[in-house]
Amino acid sequence: MDKKLVWLVVAALLTGGVVAQAGYTFTLDGREESLVREGLRVRGGIVSLRGDSERPVAGDLAWISARATCLVRLEAPGRYEFTDEFEAAGRLLLRHDQGSRVAVVDSTRLVAADAATRAALLGVVVDRWDAEVADALAKLAPTVPLVVTDGAAIGAERA
Question: Are the C-beta atoms of 108 and 133 separated by less than 8 Å?
Answer without folding.
Answer: no
